[in-house]
Amino acid sequence: MIRILLADDHAIVRAGLRALLDSGVAESDSVDVEVIGEVATAEEAVSFCATTEVDLVLMDLRFGPGKSGAQATAAVRELPSPPNVLVVTNYDTDADILGAIEAGACGYILKDTPPAELMAAVRSAAAGESVLSPSVASKLMTRVRKPDTTLSPREIEVLRLVADGLSNRDIGRRLFLSETTVKSHLVHIYSKLGVKSRTSAVARAREQGAI
């Protein structure tokens, strides 16, 4: 029996996942799956797993105010008897993918994944196997092959704040960095993206799906 918790802040998404899982069970005698709970916040996901035996959490990444899905994943994986975590999200930027994997997720798939592939991902993730959507796997391979031209998680964080219109001083305050460190990050960002300005850096990063 694969006991599943659905963690997503949209009720319609949770209903859709439950319907897909239920239909998958009905169509296959080899899949023994039960959705034992649904939560709408990252905090609730951690609390549920701390008090209930769960085999697999289908975790979204963004819940609005409060913890992120990556933070919840890290907290869940630190529990005495942690369930595996399969991220199911709409987001596939480098920062999101790396953040989730570094937090301990064993899989990362997108919400437009076909039902049959979702069921296969659930089985694999429940067994602790690595599961990645093709587009996510491609991004990771690109990062491995071109480490000198791929932005680091911190550089992406800095660039997102640049995109929000923050000055170097404000970015430093937000990230607890000196202005000199922020400028150093920007120099590396410009070099990796092949640009010479903040505006161009943001535009190029968006084209590449980095932010």
From TrEMBL:
SMART domains in alphabetical order: HTH_LUXR, REC
One of the Pfam families matching this protein, by short name: GerE
CDD domains per record: LuxR_C_like (cd06170), REC_NarL-like (cd17535)
Annotated HTH luxR-type domain residues: 144-209
Modification 4-aspartylphosphate occurs at: D60
Domain Response regulatory, chain residue ranges per copy: 3-126
Keyword Transmembrane helix: no
InterPro entries named among the record's database cross-references: CheY-like_superfamily, NreC/VraR/RcsB-like_REC, Sig_transdc_resp-reg_C-effctor, Sig_transdc_resp-reg_receiver, Tscrpt_reg_LuxR_C, WalR-like
Keywords: DNA-binding, Phosphoprotein, Transcription, Transcription regulation
Protein name as catalogued: Response regulator transcription factor
Biological classification of the source: Bacteria, Bacillati, Actinomycetota, Actinomycetes, Mycobacteriales
